[in-house]
Amino acid sequence: MAEELRNEFAAVHLEVVTLGNGPVLMITDLKSGASAQYDPLELETLVYLSAAERTHLLDPATTRWSGEGDAPSETAEYLFDTYFHPHESEPSSEAI
Fold this sequence. Notes:
Blueprint: E1 2-6, E2 11-19, E3 22-29, E4 35-38, H1 40-47, H2 51-58, H3 60-63, H4 72-84
Antiparallel strand pairs: 1-2, 2-3, 3-4
């Protein structure tokens, strides 16, 4: 399967590819050429994001235009840390 999706805000190429651990969805940004691969678990997780979490993800200032997280791997690491370890960046009461 390969497909391109476009609107006034974005243009992406979608392709299902098979890697060693099974099929993944490869998404490529047609403007920059940046791409990332998502396995079924990662895709399922998107279904359960709240509207606020999706809004945060869609804000280009958060992940694409801020100068931070420009690479897909940096963006994925930021999102993982934000949503799965949200309190690790806060100082602990023991350190104060």
